[in-house]
């Protein structure tokens, strides 16, 4: 029914192809040491990238997909995008026929890539050509955040931030704060007489941890949670779903007609499941607070206003500005001594660029730049990390065999201690494999995208044909699709942490993955996720603390992780 509604609404869109462009979000996995020495950092410690192995063949699979580029008409791809709801789902749909699809949307060429060889070429071997996510001309913002910063600006931001997230001593320092906060959350969960939403608590914990890392603020966000369990009443459930779909469709239609930049379009068509979950939660609160009419009316008015002719005002909200201004004032007076991320950003001195016309010298980051960088870190780090923790715990407690292996490993690594430490990470190998399997299976970062800065040719395709790419083309890759590729993974729908152990390739089972670039939960290339190593340490240590110090039981009747808005558990 939802697909039919979208098709009807899109009948008038098939001839529309204007404004700017669009596509994918979220970066992933590789860290650049130098132009000739790039290494994978998908684990807690960096390890060299293994050469691509021969393609793994699932005995249940048929022949490999054809490797030539398939062209999809613009009208059809526009309709398909709205029907499937996000770019990752669209890529998964197209990948059944070919590993490379080319289409044109909003006046720009898009390549949908599901071949790990091409992922390597785009993100690593031709990283200099495919290095940006936004064009300077298309971006309406004077200052940009970390996510869409280009060239030298991005390098300057990362040079300031890398020591806070990549240095071993800083990760260890952050780890000393993860576990105490997790222990406080566990005690609060135990005090609840009823079932609790595991996702909500873990996301709130992740938010509290990140606030501490960024601002040195000690806030226990889970204590401010409101009861937001989905209703059992079918009428109320239908109402919240309808309101969520209406708001998402309104947003996506506005992006199709009025978008002015690649990244804004991408955000509208990324992670439909996550967007609908958030919108359903907001609609649920509106229903419970008797604000349904006002909520729906505001959606309709916003849609009509966005589609009405006239000059559009482009503005960007600046989050955290009062906090930044207050901290800058405190630092001038010498009142603040914490070495957190905000302090590092304010104190940073960056060499001026020639194009700025100021000659050689140093400059400070503006308040607007700092606020947008902090916004991007919060957006990328809170929801995804919290959901990985919740999903990992959920998968472990639902499998007796996996739970026994994890408990045995915790007993061996921790001994009589109840709380894990950073030094224990090297011994928690099976738990780390569980986390990686959750990242592969659920793909919380649904898209990786790059823009071609010049004309180039891709030659790494498994076919003998080269692929010409024009300047400005958008390359879309999906960790979700790569993680479910039957050519790279044995029975990809199965939750099997052993596939990431060193002995996984024994017997009749091939070594997995068949290509290292089939597993890029944190992206690939120089734009490797800033917080990847810190996030991995957080997920493993928090999960270990929860399983070691609480009896967590999944509620009967709940579906698998990621299929519902909540994961209900009882904690004792």
From TrEMBL:
Domain of life the protein comes from: Eukaryota
A single MF term (Gene Ontology): iron ion binding
Keyword Iron: yes
PROSITE patterns given in the database record: CYTOCHROME_P450 (PS00086), PROKAR_LIPOPROTEIN (PS51257)
SUPFAM superfamilies: Cytochrome P450
Residues that hold heme according to the record: 529
Cofactor (UniProt): heme
Record keywords, A-Z: Heme, Iron, Metal-binding, Monooxygenase, Oxidoreductase, Signal
The keyword Hydrolase is assigned to this record: no
One Pfam family per UniProt: p450
Family matches, as CDD domains: cytochrome_P450
Signal peptide: 1-18
Family: Belongs to the cytochrome P450 family.
Protein name listed in UniProt: Cytochrome P450
Gene source species: Hanusia phi
Taxonomic placement: Eukaryota, Cryptophyceae, Pyrenomonadales, Geminigeraceae, Hanusia
């Amino acid at each position: 029914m939802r697909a039919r509604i979208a098709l009807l609404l899109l009948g008038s869109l098939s001839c529309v192809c204007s404004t700017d462009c669009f596509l994918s979000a979220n970066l992933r996995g590789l860290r650049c040491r130098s132009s000739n020495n790039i290494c994978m950092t998908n684990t807690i410690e960096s390890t060299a990238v293994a050469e691509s192995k021969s393609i793994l063949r699932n005995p249940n699979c048929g022949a490999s997909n054809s490797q030539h580029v398939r062209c999809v008409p613009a009208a059809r791809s526009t309709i398909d995008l709205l029907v499937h709801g996000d770019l990752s789902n669209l890529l998964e749909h197209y990948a059944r026929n070919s590993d490379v699809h080319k289409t044109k949307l909003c006046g720009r060429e898009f390549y949908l890539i599901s071949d790990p060889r091409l992922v390597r070429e785009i993100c690593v071997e031709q990283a200099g050509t495919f290095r940006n996510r936004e064009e300077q001309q298309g971006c309406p913002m004077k200052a940009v955040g970390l996510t869409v910063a280009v060239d030298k600006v991005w390098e300057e931001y990362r040079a300031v931030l890398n020591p806070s997230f990549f240095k071993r001593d800083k990760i260890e320092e952050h780890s000393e704060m993860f576990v105490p906060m997790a222990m406080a959350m566990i005690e609060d969960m135990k005090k609840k007489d009823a079932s609790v939403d595991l996702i909500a608590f873990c996301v709130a914990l992740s938010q509290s941890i990140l606030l501490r890392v960024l601002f040195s603020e000690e806030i226990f966000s889970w204590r401010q949670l409101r009861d937001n369990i989905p209703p059992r009443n079918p009428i109320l459930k239908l109402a919240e779903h309808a309101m969520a779909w209406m708001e998402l469709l309104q947003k996506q239609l506005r992006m199709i007609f009025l978008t002015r930049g690649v990244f804004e379009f991408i955000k509208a068509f990324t992670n439909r499941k996550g967007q609908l979950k958030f919108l359903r939660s907001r609609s649920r609160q509106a229903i419970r607070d008797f604000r349904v009419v006002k909520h729906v009316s505001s959606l309709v008015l916003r849609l009509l206003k966005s589609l009405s002719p006239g000059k559009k005002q482009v503005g960007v909200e600046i989050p955290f500005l009062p906090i930044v201004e207050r901290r800058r004032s405190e630092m001038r007076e010498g009142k603040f001594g914490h070495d957190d991320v905000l302090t590092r950003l304010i104190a940073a001195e960056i060499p001026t660029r020639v194009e700025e016309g100021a000659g050689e010298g140093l400059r400070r980051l503006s308040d607007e730049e700092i606020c947008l960088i902090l916004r991007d870190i919060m957006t990328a780090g809170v929801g995804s990390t919290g959901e990985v923790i919740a999903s990992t715990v959920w998968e472990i407690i639902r499998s007796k065999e996996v739970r026994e292996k994890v408990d045995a490993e915790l007993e061996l690594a921790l001994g009589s201690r109840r709380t894990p430490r950073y030094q224990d990470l090297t011994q928690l190998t099976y738990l780390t494999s569980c986390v990686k399997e959750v990242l592969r299976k659920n793909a919380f970062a649904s898209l990786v995208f790059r823009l071609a800065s010049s004309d180039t040719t891709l030659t790494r395709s498994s076919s003998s044909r080269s692929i010409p790419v024009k300047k400005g083309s958008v390359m879309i890759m999906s960790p979700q699709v790569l993680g479910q590729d039957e050519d790279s993974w044995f029975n990809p729908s199965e939750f099997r942490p052993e596939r990431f152990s060193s002995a996984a390739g024994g017997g009749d089972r091939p070594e997995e993955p068949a290509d290292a670039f089939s597993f890029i939960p944190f992206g690939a290339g120089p734009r490797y996720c800033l917080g990847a190593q810190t996030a991995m340490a957080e997920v493993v240590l928090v999960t270990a603390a929860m399983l070691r110090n609480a009896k967590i039981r999944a509620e009967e009747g709940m579906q698998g992780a990621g299929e519902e808005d909540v994961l209900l558990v009882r904690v004792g």
